[in-house]
Amino acid sequence: VPGIIGLLRSHYHFALPKALFAITPCFAFFTAFSSAYKGPDIELFWISVALITGLSWFAFIAAATIIRRAWHDRPDTLLLMGWRGPWRSWVEGVRRRASYRQALLSVNPYYWLAARNPLKPYYVFWFLGICGAIWFILWCYNGRQMLEMEAFFTCAALLQTGVKIWFASEAGRQLHEDRKSSALELTLSTPLQVREILEGQFLALLRQFGAPIAVILCFDVTGMIVGARMRFSSDTEWILTWVAMIIIFLVDIMTISALGMWLGLSRKRPGRAIAQTLFSVLGLPWLVLFGMVTYMSLVNFSQMGSANFFIGAYFVVSLVIDFVLFLNASGNLTSRFRQVATQRFDVSR
Q: What Å distances lie between residue 305 and 164, 300, 310, 318, CA to CA?
């Protein structure tokens, strides 16, 4: 909202009062020590503090009031379901559900269990559609700047990071829920093998994210080509950066799938499993790279100023870490899956 207000004030010259910025906590935060707000405008700071405090208390009291009634289990009726009734009937219709179940069960039983919601792939496409709409609006507003290499690269990096986070949240979710409810222990008592369970979970992830990942890769290649043509030359450093980012994206996805399944299975809390997966795959390479840069700066390494060196160093570090994590996670899944799935959660984990 403050961004929209600022855009209307600065570029479209709407006579909007500055007090409208007070609805965001950022306004009070950034103006707390500003010399411009030590004079007559100091009241805007206090208005922002009072407004945010009041809204917070209002939200808290409203939530405390609503939760007294919201926790009750009420049967679904046409009046309560409203527009959700026809939607649920269309999504979960008997005929549609039967054909969908038959198609997945014919491939892998656990595949059907992990991909029972047929709308999950569309959720990712809706996310990409929203991102595409935002990019189109920025392109209409900024024109040529959105076709530059830097703009394409920034958008691609944000898309990849968002999909990686979403992928990590889904990789071990089904295994964690099934283990928590003891459904996984019952599944292991059937003729279904551990390899088939892992294949089914991977197929469910592929069904949900396969096509969106292909769309992101197409966007990456398009951005690399269009950005290079906008400069009327082939920038070697940028081309190498694009290729390295695409390769790392694919390798990270494979590593997240294996590591996310293992941590989702072995950790007590799903949030901890997701955080550990993201830190290991996304955060650890940067920590190692910063350590390398710090050490090389202390020993006066001669190639420190080269951009190609940083690109190559991050590429190698990421691949090595992903390779080690993937081998460790896949080894644990194949050798310790049954042991971990049938034991109770350790309180200390």
A: 30, 11, 9, 20
Distance between CA 285 and CA 249 in Å, rounded?
13
- The DSSP-derived string for 269-338 is -HHHHHHHHHIIIIIHHHHHHHHHHHHHHHTT-TTTT-HHHHHHHHHHHHHHHHHHHHHHHHHHHHHHHH
The 10 Å Cβ neighbour count of residue 342 is 13
Q: Do residues 158 and 127 lie in contact, with contact meaning Cβ atoms separated by under 8 Å?
A: no
**Amino acid, res. 112:** W
Q: How confident is the model at residue 349 (pLDDT cuts 50, 70, 90)?
A: very low
Fill in the DSSP letter of residue 145. Answer: G
- Run of H or E residues at 181: none
Instruction: Please tell me the distance from the alpha carbon of residue 230 to that of residue 150, in angstroms, as a whole number.
Output: 11
Q: How far apart are CA 13 and CA 167, in angstroms?
A: 42
**DSSP 8-state assignment for residue 346:** P
Is there a contact between 276 and 267 (Cβ–Cβ < 8 Å)? Answer: yes
- The structure tokens listed for 71 are 């926790």
Q: Identify whether the C-beta of residue 322 lies closer than 8 Å to the C-beta of residue 281.
A: yes
pLDDT digits (tens, 9 = 90+) for 41-69: 677 788 888 988 999 999 999 999 988 87
- CA 50 to CA 28: how far, in whole Å? 10
- Residues 329 and 83: their CA atoms lie apart, in Å, by 44
pTM higher than 0.90 for the full model?
Answer: no
Is residue 38 helix, strand or coil? coil
The DSSP secondary structure of 88-139, one letter per residue, reads: HHHHT-HHHHHHHHHHHHTT-HHHHHHT--TTHHHHHHHHHHHHHHHHHHHH
